[in-house]
Design brief:
Helices cover about 5% and strands about 45% of the residues. The protein is mostly beta strands and about 170 residues long.
Length: about 170
Amino acid sequence: LNHLRLLFSTANRRHALGILICAVVSADSPAICHAQLATNSQQIDGIQFTSLAGTSIQKVAGDDLVKWPVIVDWDGEGHLLVVESGGVASPIVDHNKSAVHRIVRLRDTDLDGKFDKRDVAVDKLPFTEGVLFHEDCIYACAPPNIWKFSDRNQDGFFEDREVWFDGQTIT
């Protein structure tokens, strides 16, 4: 019999978000393990969500804070960094020159578990498909490059930017 253990932890208890689910399968299990897990369903703003039993999904930000979210990560202070699209046009190489995308930081200033403040952390980006906060810097994947952004004066806006990795071309 295959063993499947699920470990749950919150990334930031104050916001009750970021449930990380790790599946650990025993060494004698096949590479692909099919398990029937108990789930629950709920609807938020007309959208049906399914999650593991014992977990819940909460709306913590609306269209007033983020218009077109792409991907998120947590910063070092527990704020949510959101890559926000400025819209997409084609061809992508030409569109990226317009630099209409950004990374915004969502904060919960009254600690009620819902974000209520939005700040622009990085602006004028090409279409960005990934974000990572590490050692007080934001790394953003905007093919063909990975950018590194630094907040030199600690005002919350990451004004210093450099190409951390240059992939040369979009293929």
